[in-house]
Every structure is written in structure tokens, then in C-alpha cells.
Amino acid sequence: MSESDLPAFDTSDFKYTQPPNPSWTYGEALATTEQGQQWAQEAEEGWKTFNPAEEDPRVIYKLCISGIVPRPIAFVSTLAEDGSENLAPFSWFNQVSTNPCVISVSVTNSPRHKDTAANIKATKGFTVNIISDPWIAQANSCSMDAPSDISEWTFSGLTQEPSISVKPARVKESAFSLECELLQNVEIKDAGGKVTTNLILGTVKYIHARNAVLNDKGVVDPAKLKAVGRLGDISYVSVKDGFRIPRPAWAEYIEENSKSSL
Ligand SMILES: Cc1cc2nc3c(=O)[nH]c(=O)nc-3n(C[C@H](O)[C@H](O)[C@H](O)COP(=O)(O)O)c2cc1C
Predict the structure, then answer these.
(1) Integer Cα distance of 96 and 124 in angstroms
(2) 124: which residues sit within 8 A by CB, 6+ positions away?
(3) Is the model's pLDDT at 262 over the cut of 70?
(4) Distance between CA atoms of residues 200 and 183, nearest Å
(5) Mean per-residue pLDDT, 157-181
(6) Is the pLDDT assigned to residue 31 strictly greater than 90?
(7) Where is the signal peptide (predicted)?
């Protein structure tokens, strides 16, 4: 089946559902639900085990970006020392600390050195913009291997919004943007000592959240944000369903267990 034979993008609203096993109690094994039973059965097919130190890094790359999913995407805006603008998506991204508020973005030097890492190292300030369904095409276009002196802003169709504390603009179309300053760059090296990756840690100076995506508790509503995540290869995921599971508490666990042992 070709991509054009697939159903059209599902624009239905995000909805909350029950969790997969809402009646689960402490200690209950997987095979008590039909889905769980099948999942347990599939373990009997065994495992294929990879040793990254011995495999071709390209094999490990494809394997890990398809297995470590879904990943959030940082859409990063930077400036070179000469003022050249740059915009590109990165899914080796996360928040790593909240006090202080620090995020990480990891940029590989393969298959080529990327402007984003060079720019952040040179000019320190950058913005990270969360991508939403309506403008994923525009954002994806910025992963093009355009020459360093070409600004991805020019062909992306996206709009610059001035930042407060850093020079690069943030993306006006983004409902959630972070202004960041380089905290530390960790150079990751291969067995021969060659730097293969720059793990950039950035201190978040300002957070811009669209009023339209904030709920009355001041947090982002996933139904409004319509965030896009990354899967393996060229696959993305749109956040369509959510479910809620209460955080377990020791006191509750003890109470439940003491009742069942009576
Ligand atoms: C959704 C998506 C996520 C990506 N994530 C990463 C990543 O985490 N690290 C990386 O080095 N490249 C990643 N890339 C590739 C870069 O976006 C691409 O190499 C881009 O051209 C880099 O631009 P630059 O040279 O202007 O910095 C990703 C591409 C896409 C489409």
C-alpha cells in the first residue's frame, strides 16, 4: 500500500479513555486480560539481542529511534555568529531538570556536522518550539540538508516572534516555546575518540505558553496542544488518546495488602 492509499489524517478531537486494565490490583499478573495474555505469549518467541559496541552504528540508530518511542520533538531556532538564521527539528530531546529548568537536545555529527550544534556553541542562545499537528509539514521541511547560509525560515512558511532574552526568534505558530541558553555541551565520542554527538544542555530562561492551550489550572491541555511526537524512520505520532492512572502510594498498598491477608 502506498502512502497515498492511507486514510486521511484523523482530525478528531483528543479524548480520554479508560486505562488498558482499570481493575488491576497489586500483584495481579499480566495474563488476566486478553490483551495481557497475548502480550505474555509473545514473550515466548524470545529476544534478539544487540551489542551496540559491535554493531554498525547505523543499525543501532534505526533500532533505537524505532524502539525508544514516542519522542518529543524540539524545533530549534538558532543564529550563527554572522547572524545566519537556522531552524531544525530534533527528537533526542527532553527536560532534564526543573530547578533550575534545564532541557537537553542531542545533535549527531552524522551524516554531517549540523548548523544547530555549531550555532549554539558559538552564540549560546536558542529557542525550542513544540510542534503541533496543524504545522508539522512546515516543521518537517526544516530537516532539509540546506546549506548553512540558507535560512529554513524562508521556505518553511513559519513566522518569527521576537524572543525576550535570546537573539534567535521563537516560532509564532508554536503553542509552547522555550527560550534557552547553553549551560553545557557534552561531547560524546566513539571508541576512536572522535566526537560523534553534541549533547546540549540548555537553561530555560523563559517559557511561552499560548493562552489557548492552558487550562484553568495553568497547565497545558493535551487536547489543545495537539503535540506531534516522533517514532522510527520517517514516522510521526499525533496525540489522540490519553488515559489517567493514579500515582501509587505506599500507605494505600499496605492497606490493600493487609485487608487481603486477613
Ligand atoms: C522529526 C525529526 C527529528 C530529528 N531529530 C534529530 C535529532 O534528535 N538529532 C539529530 O542530530 N538530527 C535529528 N534530525 C535531523 C535534523 O533535523 C536534520 O539533520 C537537520 O537538517 C539539521 O539541521 P541543521 O544542520 O540546520 O542543524 C531530525 C529530523 C526530524 C525530521
Answers:
(1) 18
(2) 166, 181, 182
(3) no
(4) 8
(5) 98
(6) no
(7) none
Tens digit of pLDDT for each residue in 69-113? Answer: 999 999 999 999 999 999 999 999 999 999 999 999 999 998 889
- Cell 524470545 appears where? 46
**What is the rounded CA–CA span in Å between residue 91 and residue 107?**
9
**55-86 per-residue burial string, b: 16 or more CB within 10 A, e: under 16:** eeeeeeeeeebeeeebbbbbbbbbbeeeeebb
- Quick one: cell of 177? 516555546
User: Which of 90, 130, 153, 233 has the most ligand 1 atoms within 8 A of CB, as the residue to mutate?
Assistant: 90
- What is the rounded CA–CA span in Å between residue 97 and residue 85? 28
Model pTM above 0.70: yes
* The three cell numbers locating residue 118: 555549531
Where is 92: in which H helix or E strand?
Answer: none
C-alpha of residue 213 to centroid of ligand 1, in Å: 26
Instruction: Please give the CATH superfamily to which domain 50-260 belongs.
Output: Electron Transport, Fmn-binding Protein; Chain A (2.30.110.10)
All structural domains of the chain with their residue ranges? 50-260
Bridge-based pairing of strands 160-161 and 125-129 is unpaired
Amino acid (one-letter) located at 194 = K
Confidence of residue 260 (pLDDT cuts 50, 70, 90): low
Q: Which three cell numbers stand for residue 19?
A: 486505562
- Lining ligand 1 with CB less than 6 A are 73, 86, 88-92, 106-108, 114-116, 140, 143, 145, 230
What's the average model confidence in pLDDT over 26-37?
90
pLDDT at 211: 98
